[in-house]
Amino acid sequence: MNFLNKKDQNLTLFTLLLILFGLTPSALAQSKYSDKGGISIVVNNDSLHKVLSEIEKQSSYKFAYNTELILHQINITFQCTNLNINQTLDDLFKTTEIKYQIIGNQIILQKKVFEKITIRGYISDKKTGEMLIGTSIYFPKTKNGGISNNYGFFSLSVPPDDSLDIEISYAGYKTIHAKIDASNDIKMNIALTLRDDSTDYTPVIVLIDKREDNIRRNQTDLIDLSTDMIAGTTSVSGSGDVISSVQLSGGVQPGLDGSSGYFVRGGNSDQNLVLLDEACLYNPGHLFGLVSVFNSSAIKKANLLKGGFPAAYGDFLSSVLDVYMKEGSNKQFGGDLELGTIDASMTLHGPIAGDRSSFLLSARRSTIDWILRPLSITDEFTNYYFYDVNAKINLQVSPTNKFFF
Question: Does residue 106 have a pLDDT over 70?
Answer without folding.
Answer: yes
